[in-house]
Amino acid sequence: MSQAAKEHKGENGTCLILVDIQNDYFPGGSMELAGIEEAAANAKLLLEQCRKSGTPVVHIQHIAARPGATFFVPGTDGAEISQMVAPAAGESIVIKNFPNSFRGTSLLELLAARQIKDLVICGAMSHMCIDATTRAAFDLGFDCTVVEDACATRDLQFQGRTVKAADVHASFMSALAIPYAKIVSTEEALGQL
């Protein structure tokens, strides 16, 4: 296999990381996010492109370990990965219990084994697990791309006021842009996968 082919297949190359695209974030779930259906549809496009090109994919699934958790509760339908981006045979699934997808998981070892250097990250929530995972990946030496329109979040409360989801999302994407990640659209990302 040529070096170019190896890079294309993930060796010294790229991996798509789909973070927490789980049922509880969708309408009817315990923690519905603004724009999750649109974000998941974009994530599905990225996933389909990676499957066509042979680019490795890792699905991250959050399982609540904190007492009193109200979403991603073990054994519930809400904790399951959405059928929109359901893992295919042979695709890795990493279970996590913290916002940072590397903390207490096999993600780093899995990526190292495939000699992955570049991560394309999408999923939920922009202000929590996308932020924590991207910053951790940067600190571990990965080159990160966050596909912003394949990410979703929710309204937050701060000092008695509501910060709308669109503003939360924009704030976190702008904060990640320098130096943690390249922030791109799905259309731009598809051209790179």
From TrEMBL:
Does the keyword Hydrolase feature in the UniProt annotation? yes
Q: Which GO terms describe its molecular function?
A: hydrolase activity
Domain of life where this protein originates: Bacteria
- Which protein are we looking at? Isochorismatase
Tell me which PANTHER family the record gives: ISOCHORISMATASE HYDROLASE, PEROXYUREIDOACRYLATE/UREIDOACRYLATE AMIDOHYDROLASE-RELATED
**Kinase in keyword set:** no
Give the source species: Citrifermentans bremense
Q: Which UniProt keywords apply?
A: Hydrolase
Q: Mind telling me which Pfam families this protein's record contains?
A: Isochorismatase
Which residue intervals define the domain Isochorismatase-like in the entry? Answer: 14-160
